[in-house]
Amino acid sequence: MREHLRTALELAASQIPVLPLRAGKVPFGNCRSCVRNGCGGRPNMKNAGPCACPGPCHAWAAATTDPDVINSAPWHHAWMRASAVAYHPGGAWLTVVDLDHADAITWARENLPATQTVPTTRGEHWIYLGPMQSANAVRPGMDIKSTMAYARWLGVGTGTMTALPDAVRALAVRKPPAARPAPRAITVPALAGGGECRHRTPAYLERGIAMAEQRITEARSAVHATVYRTFLAVLSTHGRCGCLTEAHMARLFTAAQAKGETIRHCNDAWVNARTALGM
Predict the structure, then answer these.
(1) Which of 13, 101, 231, 239 has a CA-to-CA distance to 191 between 20 and 30 Å?
(2) Cα(first)–Cα(last) distance of the chain, in Å?
(3) pLDDT on residue 56
(4) pTM
C-alpha cells in the first residue's frame, strides 16, 4: 500500500532501516528461491544478508535506509502488497521490549525504567536507546528485539526514550543450569560390536525418546533452543552406549519438523549437541 511506502521512506530518512511485511507479519522474499522461506527461514549469523538473489532477502538483514532500494521495482511491488511496515531496531540503535499481555506489562512497570511506549494489538512495545542481543521468551509474554531481529512499526508512541538499562540486558543472559552429576552412561564406553546396553533397559530408552518427542511437541516458544536442549539431553544419556539408532533420531527429527524446524536446523542442532558432548 502506498501509505506503507510513504512511512518506509520517512523512517529511512531518519536512518531507521525498514522492510515490508506480508500477511502474518512475515517478510517478503526478494526472489523465487526465497518464497515460503525456501532460503532457510529466520536468519542467523551464518546465513544472514545477501545470498544468491539480486538483493538481500533474509528478514531483518533486508532492512534498508536507502531510498533507491525502497523505490526499486521488486521492493516497490512488495510495498504495494504489504500489510505492515517493519524495522530493524538494532540497526537504528534501539531495543524493543515486546510485552504480549497484561501480566508482562505489569512486571515491566514494576521492574524496568519507564521509557517510550507504543501500544500493540495485545500489549505494548517499550523502546530503549541502545542495541543489544535479541532474545525470545526471556520471561512469560516477553521478547527482546534489537540486533538480528525485526519489529513492526506501530508509530512513535508516548513518553521519553530512556537509555538501555542493565535490567533489560540481564534478561537476555541465560543462566547456566545447576550442576548435576553426569549420567552413568557418559562414562560407559560403547560396546564392541554392538549389543544390549548393560546399564539401561530398552524400556528406559523408549521412555526417554517418548519424553523427548513430547518435550519438543509441547514447546510454545523458543523452539530452536528446545530442540537443541532435547537433543543434548538424549545424547548425553543414550549417545555413548550403542543403544541409540537412526530410527530414534528420525523420531526426534520428525517431532522437530512438525514444529516448523527445517531438516537443516535439525542436523545443525544434532551436530552441535554431539560437539558439545565431545562425541
Answers:
(1) 231
(2) 53
(3) 52
(4) 0.59
